[in-house]
Design a protein that fits this description.
Helices cover 71% and strands 3% of the residues. The chain has 11 helices and 2 strands, in the order ααααββααααααα. The protein has helices at residues 2-32, 39-55, 60-81, 91-113, 138-160, 162-172, 174-179, 184-210, 218-231, 236-256, 267-279; strands spanning 128-131, 134-137. It has a two-stranded antiparallel ribbon with strand order 1-2. Helix 1 (2-32) runs antiparallel to helix 8 (184-210), helix 1 crosses helix 9 (218-231) and helix 1 (2-32) runs antiparallel to helix 10.
Length: 293
Amino acid sequence: MGIFIQLLIDGLSTGSIYAALALAIVLVNQATGMINFAQGALAVLSGYIAFALLNAGLPLILAILGSILISFVIGAAVERLLIRRFERGDPDTAVVVTIGLLTLITGVCAWLWSYNNRIFPSLFPNETLELLGAKVSLRSLGTFVVIVAIMGLLQLLFVGTKLGLALRAVSINPQSAAFSGMPVGRLLMVGWGLAAALGAVAGVLVAPQLTLTPGMMDNALVYALAAVILGGLTSPVGVVLAAWIIGVLENLAAVYIPFIGHDLKVVVPFLLIVVVLVVRPQGLFGRKAVVRV
């Protein structure tokens, strides 16, 4: 029983990392209708910005807050100067642009800071406590709590605020939103800025666990995209729950299904995705899109 609880807790902790990126992807999609494959690279850049501010003498909490603020500006600038030229165009072109942006940002991070592993301090103490026979890391518990708080705030943003409703309106029909007097351009910039700021949170949560490297978010991005597909693009709560499901299931499968083991555990979430897409294409928590013809 202790082993099962340990695997469950570790899976929730790992899933929280996936959830942070998945929420940023959902935020961009809700604001612009695009899937941002560069979200992981933006999170890495945010981590390096926090690392640079830390080395400049700022306390850890101020370095993280500064990174979040700078990341918001970078995200807004990327949308204004690059992405806007491809929004509402061919979706395939937009995908290629975000993949190219991922490669560019990763290369810039490697050029400025090299591929050497950098040690980034954790915001939470590196201690453990006993829970039903399992050891729970306070860092993992802190990450879990942060993601739950972000999930709630993001859900509140989209459902209960004028800004969130405006972002959704712009995503669904930018022309009608513009005719209604909404500042479409500024809303798109805000959407990308908020997603980049959320990516900064993901970066500073992941860096202490994986060490800071240009490619540290590559695997996490794959799982985050899987969580987005499984949970549904329209539901922040859904993608977080899906990320936790993925984290827990791959841990349990690695231990309790012998022919899978740790080498093939990555297959588990993708098999689950195939099943979900066949039964419920909009994801477990997503809404069906109704198109009038």
